[in-house]
Specification:
This protein is of the alpha+beta class. It has 4 helices and 5 strands; from the N terminus they run ααβαββββα.
């Protein structure tokens, strides 16, 4: 089940991956400049540890919105699934007890898409001929407030409304 605890774990893992990539690149560049090659793995470990430590000092930013799209639940779910797959990495799909279908993805926002945001979309039946998409985004922000969750939802909502027309 998609819950808030798993959001935190997914955000931590995504940030650690970014830290590892940055640490690996930095160590490789520094090693090449000094003539000491093979430091990439050590830099990756250090970058991942740094990201994990920094994670404790950041705050979670959460935003939610509702989008009503015309069509059946299945058709709208396919649209949401395709949109999230195009914009990020799909994490999973689950059926809900109320007949809705949920999908979760990691979507990058900000410069170069380097700020990972966990997006959960639940598609359920609405009024006749309409499906309601409940979107929830969660990201982390540090001292400079960038509102990654709002940015992710604005990006996804714009894509969904454009694609549904």
């Amino acid at each position: 089940m998609f819950d808030e605890a798993s959001e935190n774990e997914l955000l931590l893992a995504a940030l650690m991956q970014l830290g590892a990539k940055g640490g690996s690149i930095g160590a490789a560049a520094g090693g090449a400049a000094t003539g000491t090659h093979g430091l990439g793995r050590a830099g990756a470990r250090g970058g991942a540890r740094g990201a994990a430590r920094g994670f404790k000092w950041t705050k979670k930013d959460v935003s939610t919105t509702l989008v009503e799209l015309s069509g059946t639940v299945t058709a709208v779910f396919q649209l949401v699934h395709t949109t999230l797959a195009d914009m990020g990495n799909l994490l999973g799909v689950e059926a809900r007890d109320n007949g809705g279908i949920a999908v979760r993805a990691i979507v990058g926002v900000g410069i170069g898409g380097l700020n990972p945001t966990i997006v959960t979309a639940v598609v359920a039946a609405g009024p006749e001929g309409v499906a309601v998409v409940e979107l929830r985004a969660a990201g982390r922000e540090g001292l400079i407030k960038q509102h990654p969750a709002e940015k992710a939802l604005a990006k996804i909502t714009a894509q969904l409304t454009t694609a549904s027309q």
